[in-house]
Design goal:
This protein has about 475 residues and is mainly α. Helix content is about 55%, strand content about 5%. It has 21 helices and five strands. The longest helix is centred in the C-terminal third of the chain and has 25 residues, at about 400-420. The termini are far apart.
Length: about 475
């Protein structure tokens, strides 16, 4: 801290360059400051990244409007939908699916196995009312999701200044599907309860297609999760995990429903297996994040360090004795700072790209070692002005993100394991022996309370979204509730 304060002393303060338009921001995506550096090591890193196609410019892509899911949603969804309060739908979702007194145990066993959701009709009425207000948008979303590709308009040339408001729209759409699923769970309609061509009595048939069943809603939620997660952006990847978490909570409610059949479990298994088979590479999110980091250093060189940190972080810097001249100091050390950042990101990306297709204890430990070494370096360099942007702004929290993404994957793998076992199928090929959270083996067994057998799957790490440890899947017969 003292060294940092001394390093900041006596700095002259140049005026920042103008960033009055998107074009000004996008121009920084060409990395003009980096390209002018005299540091051969930094130019080496740039050449390597360009060869891999990882600069902001090289990550830009175009998806034809007619094939783009988001263009369909953007055109059809009304402006007032964008203003829908995600906080409101999240609160309704939690009361609908998590409320403790709405969960009724089938037995008093030590694992409380076979818990099923008892829909609170008052909360359901609130959820249905909200969904009916957005009925037109839900129809539009259903149609748009038939398209094959998705580009949410994220521009790598805009770096951290991209508009991410679309995430709230996608998450609200996912909640609408969860509300629709609750409608059908309350009626007992799970997949095959309706005859072909028969209309559901629920909520005035809000979509044109016959896919008005709880399991179909889970499928749409998982599709939305995938669309967010496949973007090369940390925030969208985490948001995709949050949507998938909600989808697995709805999955749990369907699995535990007394009318659920073996065929229903098979359909859920297919949906989760598809998620696993189309899972985006973990390295991709950090390739995108690195490009955003490179853009951030251009902001620093242009005198806009303040755009990278919020008021809270600036206040923390002041408490540590860092003077108001900080923006100038980071300009002076931008090359050294960025070199350290790019070298660190290269280590992370390389270890993720070199992981074998099948997760092993050795590959897990290799990943953990790189992350632990990085964490130690961040602590050691905490007060070094030479690498302040990397160590205090861009890299902190990375290890937590890696863990959160591992929990996301583990949740799906647990469900795939448990559903496959309940269906009498062989172990899913896409599920390794060990989990990605703590490297321990997945556990699997079948319990019974004398009335019903239940498959229990768990691991010793943390779990999320319907994988709140353990995952429980009652073994069903061919008939309803058997």
């Amino acid at each position: 801290m003292i060294a940092l304060a001394l390093a900041l002393a006596g700095c002259a303060k140049p005026g920042p360059s103008e960033l009055s338009t998107d074009e000004d921001v996008q121009a920084l995506g060409e990395l003009p400051g980096l390209r002018k550096t005299a540091d051969a090591r930094l130019l080496e890193e740039l050449a390597r990244i360009e060869q891999q196609g990882g600069t902001p410019r090289l990550l830009c892509r175009e998806v034809p409007d007619k094939e783009n899911v988001w263009k369909g949603l953007e055109r059809l969804i009304l402006p007032d939908f964008r203003d829908s309060n995600l906080e409101k739908t999240s609160e309704i979702f939690n009361r609908l699916y998590y409320r403790p007194r709405d969960l009724k145990p089938r037995d008093s066993g030590p694992r409380d196995s076979g818990r099923y959701l008892v829909i609170n009709l008052r909360v359901l009425a609130e959820a249905t009312s909200f969904r009916e207000e957005k009925q037109k948008q839900q129809v539009a979303a259903d149609e748009a999701l038939e398209r094959q590709q998705c580009d949410f308009g994220l521009d790598p040339m805009m770096g951290l200044l991209n508009d991410l408001s679309f995430i709230d729209t996608v998450r609200v759409l996912a909640h609408l599907e969860a509300f629709l699923a609750a409608d059908f769970l309350a009626l007992g309609e799970v997949m095959s309860d309706l005859s072909p061509g028969e209309e559901s009595p629920a909520a005035e048939n809000p979509r044109k297609t016959p896919r008005q069943y709880a399991i179909d809603s889970v499928g749409i939620m998982l599709r939305l999760a995938h669309l967010l997660a496949q973007q090369k952006h940390v925030t969208t990847r985490l948001s995709g995990a949050a949507v998938r978490e909600d989808a697995l909570v709805v999955t749990r409610a369907i699995v535990d429903h007394p009318l659920t059949t073996r065929d229903d479990l098979a359909k859920l298994y297919e949906l989760i297996e598809k998620q696993l088979s189309t899972w985006p590479a973990d390295a991709d999110v950090w390739i995108g994040d690195r490009a955003m980091g490179m853009h951030s250093y251009e902001l620093v060189r242009a005198g806009h360090f303040d755009l990278l940190v919020g008021e809270e972080q600036l206040a923390a810097f002041k408490q540590e004795g860092i003077s108001a001249e900080l923006p100038v100091a980071v300009i002076d050390h931008a090359d050294e700072d960025e070199l350290y950042y790019l070298q660190t990101m290269r280590k992370i990306i390389t270890v993720l790209q070199e992981l074998p297709a099948k997760r092993t204890a050795a590959s897990f430990q290799a990943r953990q070692k790189v992350l632990a070494d990085m964490q130690q370096e961040l602590k050691r360099r905490r007060y070094d002005v030479q690498t302040l942007v990397a160590c205090r702004v861009l890299l902190p929290g990375m290890r937590l993100v890696v863990t959160r993404l591992a929990e996301d994957r583990a949740a799906c793998e647990l469900w795939a394991l448990a559903l496959a076992e309940a269906l009498g199928r062989s172990r899913p090929q896409l599920v390794p022996r060990i989990n990605p959270v703590d490297g321990s083996e997945y556990m699997l067994r079948t319990e019974t309370d004398g009335r019903q057998a239940v498959v229990v799957a768990w691991h010793t790490g943390k779990g999320i979204g319907g994988a709140s440890q353990p995952v429980l899947v009652p073994i069903r017969g061919a008939g309803v509730g058997e």
